[in-house]
Write a structure and sequence with these properties.
The chain is of the alpha+beta class. The chain has a single domain, classed as Electron Transport, Fmn-binding Protein, Chain A (Pnp Oxidase, Chain A, Roll). The protein has four helices and seven strands; from the N terminus they run αββββαββααβ. It has a seven-stranded antiparallel β-sheet with strand order 2-1-5-6-7-4-3, with helices on both faces. The N and C termini lie far apart (about 30 Å).
Length: about 150
């Protein structure tokens, strides 16, 4: 069974709507946050969720700290979507990253976004590569293609 951490009440009713207001409507990106819009794999309707894109060594990534979420499954099916910030929209294509490539990406992600998402990884700040590699399969990572 794929790993998934369901959002709690505060995330669903307070934090995500706040991110949608600031990042999605007002275009105020908090440390690079964006709204990911992806067509639903069953309905074909746009689904929008806040994400924390990562830029690392000239590449951009989307990391799913909660695991195999709906946006992950929709992105896999669609192969791309849009990153939105206010009125700005960037069409993106993605490819999923293999587990063997994830530890360096996850380390970079945690260095930037630990305060917001670190609890979903269950790793200490100075976790060795072996521990990051152990949890890597639970956290899908997508490379944003140029």
């Amino acid at each position: 069974m794929p790993h998934y951490t369901k959002p709690d009440f505060m995330t669903r009713r307070v934090f995500n709507p706040m991110m949608a207001l600031f990042t999605g409507r007002l275009g105020i990106s908090l440390r690079g946050s964006a709204m990911l819009a992806v067509r639903g794999r069953k309905t074909g309707e746009w689904r929008v969720t806040p994400v924390n894109p990562l830029e690392l060594e000239g590449q951009r990534y989307l990391v799913a700290p909660r695991g195999d979420t709906h946006w992950v499954r929709n992105l896999r099916a669609a192969g791309g979507g849009e990153l939105r910030r206010g009125r700005g929209t960037e069409a993106i294509r993605v490819t999923e990253v293999a587990d063997a490539e994830k530890p360096a990406i996850l380390r970079g992600y945690l260095a930037k976004w630990r305060a917001e998402t670190g609890k979903f990884f269950g790793l200490p700040k100075d976790a060795p590569d072996s521990e990051i590699a152990r949890v890597a399969p639970e956290h899908p990572v997508f490379r944003i293609l140029p």
